[in-house]
C-alpha cells in the first residue's frame, strides 16, 4: 500500500477534509493503518459523525456570537469615545450654561484648548499656530489663577489692562485674548468649510480659512511660514478619520457633520460677543509684529 494515497483519495473533497482536521501524510493514523482501517479512516474524514457535526454547529454558533459581541463593542466604543468635535461641543455647552452676562474666561478657555487637539490632528504643519495658541492659553490661565474673582470675565481683563495702559503690549493678556479669538475664528471657518465644501481638499479648506481670518493680521514672516505649511497638509479623508476615530463608514461621516454643526452653533455666538468686545476696546485692528 502506498500510504500517501490518502492524500489522493477522492480528490479535493477528501483532501479538504484531511487538511481541515490537520491530517498529514506522516500522521500515525496513516502510517500505521492497514488498508481496511485506512479506508474507514478516509470515510470518516469525508462523512463526519453526528458528534463532529454537532461540534461544528456549536463552533459556528460561537463564531456568530463572537461577531455580535464585537459589533456591540464597536457601538459601545463610539458612545464612550465620541469624536474630537463632539467632545469640544459638549465641553463648550456645559461651560456656556454657567456663563454670566459677559463672556467668561473659563468659557473662552474651553474651546481654545479644544483647538489644540484639532490642530494636532492636522499635523506638524500647524506647529507654529499651535505654539501660539498654547502660549496664549497659558498666559490667560496664569492671570486668572492670580485672582479668579477679579479676572472671571474677559471684559474685566481687557478693561483693567486698558486702564493700566498695558493692553497693547506684546505680552499682555489682551493680546492673548485677541490672538486666541482669531485662532478660534480660523478653526470656525475651517469646520464650516469642512462641512459644506465636500469637493475641496483639506489644503484648500485651510488656505481659505487662513485668508479670511488670520492672514490680514499676519506680517510677512508668519504668512511665509503658512505658505510652507500648506504644502504639507494631509488629505481631507485622513484628517476626517482622525476626528472620527478608527471607523469611517457613512454613519460616522454623518455623525461628524452633526457634531460640526453643533459645535459651530455654540462657538459662533461666543466669538461674535468676544469680537464685539475687542472692537469696543479698539483692539481688533492690532497686527502681529
CATH topology of the largest domain: Glycolipid transfer protein, GLTP
- How does CATH name the architecture of the largest domain? Orthogonal Bundle
User: Biggest β-sheet: count, sense, barrel?
Assistant: none
Low-confidence runs of at least 5 consecutive residues: 1-22, 73-81
- At the fourth level of CATH, the homologous superfamily of the largest domain is Glycolipid transfer protein
Q: Which bin fits the share of residues in helices?
A: over 70%
CATH class group of the largest domain: Mainly Alpha
Strand count: 0
By DSSP (H or I, 4+ residues per run), the number of helices equals 13
Structural class, please? mainly alpha
Give the SSE string. Answer: HHHHHHHHHHHHH
Rg result: 32 Å
Residue fraction in strands:
under 5%
Protein name: Glycolipid transfer protein domain-containing protein
InterPro entries: GLTP_sf, Glycolipid_transfer_prot_dom
Biased composition (Basic and acidic residues): 62-71
Organism: Dendrobium nobile (Orchid)
Any key phrases for this structure?
single chain, 289 residues, mainly alpha, Glycolipid transfer protein, GLTP, 2 domains, 72% helix, elongated, disordered N terminus, GLTP_sf, ceramide 1-phosphate transfer activity
Could you outline the blueprint of secondary structure elements for this entry?
Elements: H1 11-20, H2 28-31, H3 35-46, H4 50-80, H5 84-97, H6 105-122, H7 127-146, H8 154-164, H9 173-196, H10 202-213, H11 220-230, H12 236-244, H13 250-280
Amino acid at each position: 500500500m502506498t500510504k500517501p494515497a490518502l492524500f489522493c483519495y477522492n480528490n479535493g473533497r477528501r483532501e479538504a477534509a484531511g487538511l481541515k482536521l490537520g491530517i498529514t501524510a506522516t500522521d500515525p493514523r496513516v502510517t500505521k493503518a492497514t488498508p481496511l482501517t485506512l479506508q474507514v479512516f478516509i470515510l470518516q474524514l469525508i462523512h463526519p459523525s453526528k458528534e463532529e457535526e454537532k461540534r461544528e454547529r456549536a463552533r459556528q454558533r460561537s463564531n456568530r456570537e463572537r461577531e455580535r459581541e464585537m459589533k456591540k463593542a464597536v457601538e459601545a466604543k463610539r458612545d464612550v469615545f465620541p469624536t474630537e468635535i463632539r467632545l469640544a461641543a459638549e465641553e463648550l455647552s456645559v461651560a456656556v450654561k454657567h456663563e454670566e452676562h459677559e463672556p467668561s474666561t473659563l468659557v473662552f478657555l474651553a474651546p481654545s484648548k479644544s483647538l489644540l487637539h484639532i490642530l494636532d490632528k492636522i499635523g506638524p504643519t500647524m506647529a507654529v499656530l499651535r505654539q501660539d495658541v498654547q502660549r496664549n492659553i497659558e498666559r490667560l490661565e496664569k492671570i486668572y489663577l492670580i485672582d479668579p474673582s477679579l479676572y472671571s470675565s474677559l471684559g474685566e481683563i481687557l478693561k483693567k489692562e486698558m486702564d493700566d495702559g498695558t493692553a497693547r503690549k506684546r505680552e499682555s493678556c489682551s493680546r492673548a485674548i485677541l490672538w486666541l479669538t482669531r485662532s478660534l475664528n480660523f478653526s470656525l471657518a475651517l469646520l464650516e468649510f469642512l462641512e459644506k465644501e465636500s469637493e475641496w481638499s483639506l489644503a484648500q479648506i485651510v488656505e481659505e480659512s487662513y485668508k479670511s481670518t488670520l492672514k490680514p493680521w499676519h506680517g510677512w514672516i508668519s504668512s511665509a511660514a503658512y505658505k510652507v505649511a500648506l504644502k504639507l497638509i494631509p488629505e481631507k479623508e485622513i484628517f476626517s478619520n482622525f476626528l472620527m476615530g478608527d471607523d469611517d463608514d457613512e454613519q460616522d461621516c454623518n455623525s461628524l457633520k452633526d457634531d460640526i454643526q453643533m459645535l459651530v452653533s455654540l462657538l459662533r455666538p461666543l466669538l461674535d460677543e468676544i469680537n464685539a468686545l475687542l472692537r469696543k476696546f479698539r483692539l481688533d485692528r492690532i497686527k502681529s509684529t
